[in-house]
Amino acid sequence: MATFKFELVSPERILMSVDADQVVVPGADGDFAVLSGHAPVITTLRPGVIDVTAGTTRKRLFVKGGFAEVDPERLTVLAQKAYDVDEMSASIVSSELSAAEAELAAAKDDEAKMMADTLVSELKRLAAKAA
Predict the structure, then answer these.
(1) Which among 51, 56, 117, 119 is most buried, taking Cβ atoms within 10 Å?
(2) Topology of the domain covering 4-84
(3) What is the Cα–Cα distance from 43 to 29, expressed in whole angstroms?
(4) pTM, whole model, 2 decimals?
(5) Cα torsion for 27, 5, 54, 97, to the nearest 10°?
């Protein structure tokens, strides 16, 4: 299977840079899979899990939001904040959930409410799996 370059970048650093076989991304309009040769696209991300397959390795990364840029040879995700799902402790999930619930309570418009609600839902789902 042909591979492509996948990079996950946060404001602090490059979190992941691999040659991937497939990456499933939580786009604003729904999840989409990226394979080598994908048509060019730029999209916003909703809170969710990026699922990266590189050879026999599978990595799951939680992102709070951001942007994705795809071209036939590369996928670059610019994330507001990202965590390796396997390394998220209960305290990290709890802290992020508290912050997300505060964002939801403070949301002033429908778009902000929808993003905060999605973030709360995704974090609750991660908390349930970790328990």
Answers:
(1) 119
(2) ATP Synthase; domain 1 (2.60.15)
(3) 9
(4) 0.87
(5) -40
